[in-house]
Amino acid sequence: MISRRKFFSNAAVAAGAAALGAATRSVKGGERVGQSPENPEKINDHAQSDQQDYPPGEPGKDYTPVITPNGSTLPFKVVGGVKVFHLITEEVDHEFAPGLRAYCWGFNGQVHGPTIEVVEGDRVRIYVTNNLPENTSIHWHGVFVPSGMDGVGGLSQKTIEPGETYKYEFKLRQEGTYMYHSHCDEMTQMALGMMGMFIIHPRNPTGPKADRDFAFMLSEWRIDVGTM
Description:
- The structure is a single chain.
- It is built from 3 helices and 11 strands; from the N terminus they run ααβββββββββαββ.
- The chain has helices spanning about 5-35, 40-45, 185-190, and strands at about 65, 75-80, 80-95, 100-105, 115-120, 125-130, 140, 165-170, 175-180, 195-200, 215.
- Strands 2, 3, 4, 6 and 8 form a 5-stranded mixed sheet that branches. A 4-stranded mixed sheet has the order 5-10-9-7, with no helix packed on it. It has a two-stranded parallel ribbon with strand order 1-11.
């Protein structure tokens, strides 16, 4: 016959073991989800399932499109309710001023990269094709994204090798003015121009609507005479 003290002691040990097992399963499950960039839909659904679904925001209807002086806005298409963008990292022959040119690194043929415009609540899918001679990855600075979509090469994803295309996908849970940039050998790649604006318009804006909206990205450059 087991004593009352022994009974509760065994029960406590069993309960603790069960809790430890559950915690272990939870941690392993979280790691599998958080470290699977090959399945971004699963990551996003797991991390952002509490978010209400909205139709993709439309320029001119849901927001005043931004004007980027000496730049452009990255076009998109809607596929199954998802805004799909395509960024191409590549070397760019950039003219800073008449007669002052240099080979830089940028996106889609320009430095800085094109402005990405989205609306709070949008789900976005951004393909990044690497046409550079070295690996890269893209970070969405200040934007709330699942770990697997954060673009930290060697930590949250494998870096994108030359010639490869990588898919980022996440739902936007905030509004504001942000940026995207290389997150691989940043001191070199960002210094060569690998950055751009990432603007999230509010889903339900308050206050007067802007007649015109401008986006400026400032960056300091040192170009020695004769550089090319």
